[in-house]
Design goal:
The protein is an all-alpha fold. The chain is built from 20 helices and no strands. The longest helix has 35 residues. It starts with a helix and ends in a 6-residue tail after the last helix.
C-alpha cells in the first residue's frame, strides 16, 4: 500500500468526522460539551462505547497476545460481566440520583473537598497516561507504515494526530463523540471481520468450520486452574477483570460521561446491559483473529510477534490491498474512538472538579475557560506521547496499561467502596496521604511477591491497591459522637 493511498484514506476518514462535528456542533454550549444535553439514544451510546473500550491497544495488542498467553485474556473479559453488573445496579443509580456532571462530585458529598480533589486528580493522571499509551501505539504504527516513508519525524506525527482530534471535539465535546464513536466502532469491527476473512481463506479454513478450527487449536486454551500462583490463574484474572471493569468504566469519567448523556437511568442501564454482551463477543473475536494471525505467520515464515503481528501481516504480507485498507481504517478508528473521549473527559474533569467553573465562573467565562483547558490538555498529551517514545520498548502495551491502571485506579476503588459500603466518616485532609501511600505499598509488595509469597499478582494488583486504600481510610476514620 502506497503512502499516498494511506494519506487519502486518512483524509477522507477525518473529513467524515469533521462533517459529523459540524452538524452536532450547532448552537453548542457547555451543557452540550459535558453532557450532550442528556439527549443521546442509549443504543447509540452502547455501540459507540465498544470502540472506546477496545481502543487501538486492543486492536493491535490482544491479537498479538495469543501466541504467548493463548486465550487467557478471556478470563479477564468474563470478569468484566460481573463488573458491569455492579456498574448498572449500583453506580449508575447513584450518579443519576445525584444528577452529576463529573462522577467525582460524589466524593465531595460523601467525604469532603480533599477526597473530591484526590479522586479527580487520580483520574486525570490515569487518563493522561492511559490515553497517551493508546495513542503512542497507533502513532508508532502510522510512523512505520506511512510517515517514515515521507521522512516525517515522530513528533510531527504526534502533533498531527492530536490536532485532528482537537479539530472535531473542541466545539461540542461529548455530543459529537457519542456519534463519531458509533462510526468508528463500525469501521473497527468491519476491519476485524475483513482480516479474519482474508487470513482464514489463505489458511484454507472454510467459514462454516472457522469456529471449530479456533476451538480445536492448542492456542485457544481459555481456562487456567493449574497454578494459583500464576498470573494466568482463572480466579485471579476473573476477579481482576471484574474490578478493572468497575474502576476503568464505572469510576472513570471518560466512560461514564457517555452513559450520563442518556435520557434517563433506565436507558443508561439498557446501554450497559447490551454493551456487556457485545463487548464479550467482540473480545473473543479479537482473540480468534490473533490465533489466525499467529498460525498464518508460522506457516509463512513471518517473524512478527506481539504488537507487530497484526500490522506487519496486514500491510506487508501477500494477502492483498483490501486487508491493508481496512486495517488502516480500523486502526485509526480504534485509536480515535478512545482518544477523543479521553481529551473531552480530561477537559470536563479539570473544568468541573479542579477549577469548579460551574460555581465560580459566569456562563461566558465558563466556555472560554473550557476551550483553553481543551487546548492545554491537547498539548499535554502531545508531550507525554513523545516522552513514551523513549520509555516503552519491549513489553506489550496493553499489559503496561492495565498494570499502571492497577496503581492509579486502586485509590478510587478504595474510596468508592468505603463510601458506598460503610457509613463511616474520615478525616478528609488525610485522604490524599492514604491515596498516595497505597500505590507505593502495592508496588513494593508486588515487586517482592514472588520472593515473599511465591505469588505473582498480575492484574490482581488493582484489588490489593484498593484494599490498602480501604484499610487506610479505616485508620483515619472520624470517631462517631
Amino acid at each position: 500500500m502506497q503512502p499516498l493511498h494511506i494519506l487519502l484514506l486518512i483524509g477522507a476518514y477525518f473529513g467524515v468526522l469533521l462533517l459529523i462535528s459540524y452538524f452536532t456542533g450547532k448552537n453548542s454550549d457547555n451543557d452540550a460539551f459535558f453532557k450532550a444535553n442528556r439527549q443521546s439514544p442509549w443504543y447509540v451510546v452502547a455501540f459507540g462505547m465498544i470502540g472506546a473500550s477496545l481502543s487501538g491497544v486492543t486492536f493491535i495488542s490482544v491479537p498479538g497476545w495469543v501466541e504467548a498467553s493463548q486465550f487467557s485474556y478471556m478470563q479477564v473479559v468474563l470478569g468484566y460481566i460481573l463488573g458491569y453488573a455492579v456498574i448498572g445496579t449500583v453506580l449508575l443509580p447513584l450518579y443519576y440520583r445525584l444528577n452529576l456532571t463529573s462522577i467525582y462530585t460524589y466524593l465531595e458529598t460523601r467525604f469532603g473537598s480533599y477526597s473530591y480533589k484526590t479522586g479527580a486528580s487520580f483520574f486525570l493522571l490515569s487518563r493522561v497516561v492511559g490515553a497517551s499509551f493508546r495513542l503512542f501505539l497507533v502513532a508508532n504504527v502510522l510512523q512505520s507504515i506511512l510517515f517514515d516513508a515521507l521522512a516525517v519525524p515522530f513528533w510531527v506525527t504526534v502533533i498531527i494526530t492530536i490536532l485532528l482530534i482537537w479539530l472535531y471535539t473542541f466545539k461540542s465535546g461529548i455530543k459529537t463523540i457519542v456519534w463519531t464513536d458509533t462510526l468508528q466502532t463500525l469501521f473497527m469491527l468491519i476491519a476485524v471481520g475483513v482480516a479474519i476473512y482474508y487470513v482464514s481463506s489463505d489458511l484454507g479454513v472454510d467459514g462454516s468450520k472457522l469456529l471449530g478450527y479456533v476451538l480445536d487449536s492448542d492456542l485457544s486454551k481459555l481456562f487456567f486452574f493449574d497454578d494459583f500462583k500464576s498470573a494466568n490463574y482463572f480466579w485471579k484474572q476473573f476477579f481482576s477483570g471484574a474490578f478493572i471493569a468497575i474502576v476503568m468504566t464505572g469510576l472513570d469519567q471518560d466512560m461514564m460521561q457517555k452513559n450520563l448523556t442518556c435520557r434517563n437511568l433506565k436507558d443508561a442501564q439498557k446501554n450497559i446491559f447490551w454493551f456487556t454482551i457485545v463487548l464479550t463477543i467482540v473480545n473473543f473475536i479479537f482473540l480468534g483473529l490473533g490465533l489466525l494471525l499467529t498460525q498464518y505467520a508460522s506457516q509463512n515464515g513471518i517473524d512478527a510477534h506481539k504488537d507487530q503481528l497484526f500490522p506487519i501481516i496486514a500491510t506487508q504480507s501477500e494477502l492483498g490491498f483490501g486487508i491493508a485498507v481496512f486495517f488502516i481504517l480500523g486502526l485509526i478508528a480504534a485509536a480515535y474512538s478512545s482518544a477523543d473521549s479521553a481529551l473531552t473527559s480530561l477537559t470536563t474533569s479539570f473544568s468541573i472538579d479542579i477549577l469548579d467553573i460551574e460555581k465560580k465562573y459566569t456562563p461566558a467565562d465558563q466556555i472560554k475557560t473550557r476551550k483553553k483547558i481543551h487546548i492545554l490538555f491537547s498539548i499535554l498529551l502531545m508531550l507525554v506521547i513523545i516522552a513514551f517514545k523513549y520509555i516503552i520498548k519491549d513489553e506489550s502495551v496493553i499489559a503496561k496499561l492495565f498494570v499502571f491502571a492497577g496503581y492509579t485506579y486502586g485509590p478510587l476503588l478504595g474510596l468508592y467502596a468505603f463510601g458506598l459500603f460503610t457509613k463511616l466518616q474520615v478525616k478528609d485532609k488525610w485522604v490524599p496521604v492514604i491515596a498516595i501511600l497505597s500505590p507505593i505499598l502495592s508496588y513494593i509488595i508486588s515487586l517482592n511477591s514472588l520472593i515473599w509469597f511465591g505469588f505473582e499478582f498480575g492484574f490482581f494488583i488493582l484489588i490489593l491497591n484498593g484494599l490498602l486504600t480501604f484499610l487506610g481510610l479505616i485508620l483515619i476514620r472520624r470517631k462517631q459522637n
